[in-house]
Automatic annotation (TrEMBL):
<dbReference type="Pfam" id="PF16486">
    <property type="entry name" value="ArgoN"/>
</dbReference>
<dbReference type="InterPro" id="IPR036397">
    <property type="entry name" value="RNaseH_sf"/>
</dbReference>
<dbReference type="Pfam" id="PF02171">
    <property type="entry name" value="Piwi"/>
</dbReference>
<dbReference type="Pfam" id="PF16487">
    <property type="entry name" value="ArgoMid"/>
</dbReference>
<dbReference type="InterPro" id="IPR003165">
    <property type="entry name" value="Piwi"/>
</dbReference>
<dbReference type="GO" id="GO:0003676">
    <property type="term" value="F:nucleic acid binding"/>
</dbReference>
<dbReference type="InterPro" id="IPR032474">
    <property type="entry name" value="Argonaute_N"/>
</dbReference>
<dbReference type="InterPro" id="IPR032473">
    <property type="entry name" value="Argonaute_Mid_dom"/>
</dbReference>
<feature type="domain" description="Piwi">
    <location>
        <begin position="498"/>
        <end position="782"/>
    </location>
</feature>
<protein>
    <recommendedName>
        <fullName>Piwi domain-containing protein</fullName>
    </recommendedName>
</protein>
<dbReference type="InterPro" id="IPR012337">
    <property type="entry name" value="RNaseH-like_sf"/>
</dbReference>
<feature type="region of interest" description="Disordered">
    <location>
        <begin position="1"/>
        <end position="25"/>
    </location>
</feature>
<dbReference type="InterPro" id="IPR036085">
    <property type="entry name" value="PAZ_dom_sf"/>
</dbReference>
Length: 827
């Protein structure tokens, strides 16, 4: 493919609408504060440190680099200058370190662990001006994005990493015990502060986030292990005590303590793992470990059935592994059961978390950090309040009896009781495939589940014509293609529409192989459920499965009222969404997914998945995908869209300009492939979910529909935050939208309202979701699309743990089966 050509016209951002920040009807509390830069400049230097006594190689260890830099600085002209070195590549100063040259080279001796001579090279890289940043925040679009991004990177490094005396530093992470949550399980929940500098409208801001971390509160590893396994036994409904554990059971505990510092006989050691045998089997120079400790130290090693901690290439009994009293340490959280439990314990309410954030901002803004004072960074101790607009929910149309009416909305959701889907496709031919033996899943239990499932479908208005689907038990899983084919053959009718697969446990490899075979070889819709769900047959779960099945077969749950689709009722509009996922399972390939609406109401979508070069963010061959999407839209509606609204996920600041230009140009090229004179109006909206901005209203989560267009939004691009969903737990995270291109010339309120209303179109839940449904489809398709492989999914090195064979052909994506191509198989 030829490299894309630069188009200056496409590089420009649309002007911010005049009414973008008007109409605020409430105030919300934010988690960011204003920042003033009292110094005129910030200088950035590149630091290189090489070992002159060996082969001249670069020193990589961050702690060692900091130590060497401090010694080199003390022995040179730099000793009188205030410098902050991040330990990696860059050093920062508020004044120039040297005026008559571009770099300085200093030598220093340091033990690492042997005495060596090091060369430290400090090279001038960039100078940033505070007044230029002020102009950018005031809306000056002439300031290059690259300049602002580099400035923010430097400020981030200083604010995040500089010493904070009032906080506890653990491995470069700053912790606070303010309003900590105490537990009896060997750890307390502390808070780790994370800081991000953000240019906003009229000012510079610093975001503060608080992440919960488990900080150990016991004195030795034996006690920690006892509490660990007691909690695990309670979570897994087991009655085993730590003393009755087999050595193999301790593998789940090892990651939790790896890297911890321990004190053994007044010596500090670092734990590297656990012994592979019990303490009773460990010997020291032919003598048992118990005899060795009793003879030399007069100490008992404790429970001999437990393993030993491995530290400094020696085995230390767990009961003698003391944890330093003067040093806080973070417990490694391992296993799904422990992560879920930890998240439950640390799930505090919005008011509690806001108190933690406000406390952290007061510390940051105080006089405790000499680094911030030296760089002239002055932070307000008060978290900002900004104006917000709360949109009314749209009218969702569902069947009530024989009529289609708007549902009654409460807090962004509605109850499905008595309501029916607006459209359904009859389920005439399907079968059930159980992976396992009849003893584990008795036919009577399975029949009860199927009957309950059909009952839920009938209540939702989904027509299930075959009420006695045949059942196949698969006890061997070595040939999924044959097994799935036999299940399809059992279904009555000319063509099997659906295979309901019952999985014995949560298995990514088994699930992936079922989907791979069904999507690429057989061409049948599949719906997987776990055996535990079959046993419980929870009505809420069955409702979700029924709605998902209905969408896959061609039906849909609810429609938006035509008056709640701004601009779409007057002009034929196609919604497109795209996402790029960089996988780990399939050799690290990058997968792009594009979904496009196939009706004029933004309800049903078709999807395309593409494989392209690793780690590349923009989408290759996008024009070909657009051409196909336009053809499908025309075939379904009889219209060519006059407007295209394109939502793009997963692009950061540094990639934003390239993705905008390349993919916009591809959309226009795809339209010209249909007709050289055809050019619809295109609006490109970028969405970001990974950010730290949070909003509260009167100490609680914001109501669905809350939109913030002031404060820490982009000063140069039309952008806004939108809380589209209700969060019953924790603090809701708004989605952040940036409008990078707008041929349509949407009014600010119309585009915000359209974006909010489209978040009600996700058909498997009866509420609004975080972002427009099309973006969820694109995200789901990146997950499903990576399963469309040319080889068995469960034979990849990711699952077998085998070393990849460089000579073997790498797996690649293949097209979805033609029988599923126009369906929403990715649901």
């Amino acid at each position: 493919m030829e490299p894309p050509q630069f188009n200056e016209e496409l590089s420009k951002y649309p002007p911010r609408p005049a009414d973008n920040d008007q109409g605020a009807d409430t105030q919300v509390q934010t988690n960011y504060s204003r920042v003033e830069l009292l110094k005129k400049s910030l200088y950035v230097y590149r630091v290189s440190i090489v070992n002159k006594d060996t082969d001249g190689s670069e020193v990589n260890d961050t702690t060692v680099r900091k130590e060497i830099f401090l010694k080199a600085r003390a022995s040179s002209d730099l000793s009188t200058r205030h410098i902050y070195f991040d330990g990696k590549d860059y050093a920062y100063a508020a004044k120039s370190l040297f005026k008559d040259r571009d770099e300085i080279v200093v030598s220093a001796e340091c033990h690492v662990p042997d005495l060596c001579l090091f060369e430290v090279r400090v090279q001038m890289l960039r100078r940033y001006e505070a007044k230029v940043l002020e102009r950018y925040c005031a809306g000056d679009t002439r300031v290059p994005d690259s300049y602002v991004q580099g400035f923010m990177f430097a400020l981030d490094a200083i604010v995040r990493s500089c010493p904070k005396p009032q906080l506890v530093e653990v491995g470069g992470r700053f912790l606070s015990d303010h309003r900590m949550v105490a537990t009896p399980w060997g750890y307390d929940v502390w808070w780790e502060y994370r800081l991000t500098m953000r240019p906003g409208r009229g000012a510079l801001f610093v975001n503060i986030g608080a992440k919960s971390v488990p900080v150990i509160n016991v004195t030795d590893l034996a006690e920690l292990s006892r509490l660990f396994f007691e909690k695990r036994a309670a979570m897994l409904h087991r009655k085993k005590k730590p003393t009755a554990l087999e050595i193999a059971d301790w593998a789940v505990f090892e990651p939790a303590i790896r890297g911890l510092s321990i004190v053994h006989r007044e010596e500090t050691l670092v734990v590297t793992g656990l012994s592979t045998v019990s303490a009773s089997e460990v010997t020291v120079e032919g003598e048992s470990l118990a005899s060795h400790y009793q003879r030399l130290y007069g100490q008992d090693i404790g429970d001999p059935s437990m393993p030993c901690a491995m530290a400094d290439k020696r085995a230390v009994p767990l009961s003698l592994c003391l944890l330093p009293r003067d040093k806080r340490q973070i417990l490694g959280v391992v296993g799904a059961w422990q992560r879920d439990d930890f998240l439950r314990i640390s799930a505090v309410g919005p008011e509690h978390r806001h108190s933690v954030l406000a406390h952290g901002m007061r510390i940051l803004a105080g006089e405790g950090s000499p680094e911030l004072r030296a760089f002239g960074i002055q932070i307000s101790p008060t978290l900002e309040r900004v104006g917000a607009r709360v949109f009314d929910p749209p009218r969702i149309m569902l069947r009530q009896g024989q009529e289609t009416k708007p549902v009654v909305m409460r807090e962004g959701g509605w109850e499905m009781g008595g309501l029916r889907v607006v459209s359904s496709s009859p389920l005439r031919s399907w079968s059930v495939l159980v992976f396992g033996h009849q003893q584990g899943m008795p036919p009577a239990l399975l029949r009860t589940f199927v009957n309950q499932y059909i009952k839920i479908c009938v209540q939702l208005g989904i027509n299930v014509q075959q009420t006695m689907p045949p059942v196949k038990y698969a006890t061997a899983w070595n040939d999924i293609e044959q097994t799935l084919g036999e299940a399809c053959a059992l279904a009555q009718g000319p063509q099997c529409q659906l295979v309901l697969c019952v999985l014995p446990f949560n298995s990514v490899s088994l699930y992936g192989e079922i989907k791979r075979v069904a999507m690429t070889f057989i061409g049948v819709q599949t719906q997987c459920v776990q055996a535990s769900h079959v046993r419980s047959h929870n009505p809420k779960l069955l409702t979700s499965v029924a709605l998902k099945m209905n969408v896959k077969l061609g039906g849909f749950t609810g429609d938006l009222h035509s008056g709640d689709l701004p601009g779409m009722q007057e002009h034929a509009t196609m919604i497109i969404a795209a996402d790029v996922n960089h996988t780990t399972e399939a050799g690290g390939m990058s997968v792009a997914a594009i979904v496009s609406s196939t009706d004029a109401r933004g309800g049903r979508f078709a999807g395309t998945v593409l494989q392209h070069p690793q780690r590349m963010e923009y989408i290759e061959n996008f024009d070909v995908v657009i051409r196909q999407a336009l053809r499908v839209f025309h075939r379904s509606t009889g219209l060519k869209p006059a407007r295209i609204v394109y939502y793009r996920d997963g692009v950061n600041d540094s990639q934003m300009g390239d993705v905008k230009q390349i993919e916009l140009d591809a959309i226009y090229r795809g339209c010209r492939l249909i007709d050289p004179q055809y050019r619809p109006l295109v609006t490109l909206v970028l969405i970001r979910k990974r950010h730290q901005s949070r909003f509260l209203h009167e100490g609680a989560n914001c109501a669905p529909g809350t939109c913030v267009a002031g404060g820490a939004v982009s000063p140069s691009v039309f952008s806004f935050y939108l809380v589209a969903h209700r969060s019953p737990f924790g603090v809701s995270r708004p989605a952040y939208y940036l409008v990078l291109h707008d041929d349509v010339g949407f009014a600010a309120e119309d585009l915000k309202r359209l974006t909010y209303n489209l978040s009600f179109m996700y058909p498997i839940v009866s509420r609004s979701v975080t972002m427009p449904a099309a973006l969820y489809y694109a995200h789901r398709l990146t997950g499903k699309g990576r399963l469309q492989l040319s080889r068995a999914f469960n034979t990849l090195p990711y699952f077998t743990k085998a070393k990849a064979d460089e000579k073997a052909p790498r797996p690649h994506l293949v097209a979805v089966h033609e029988g599923l191509r126009d369906s929403m198989y990715f649901m």
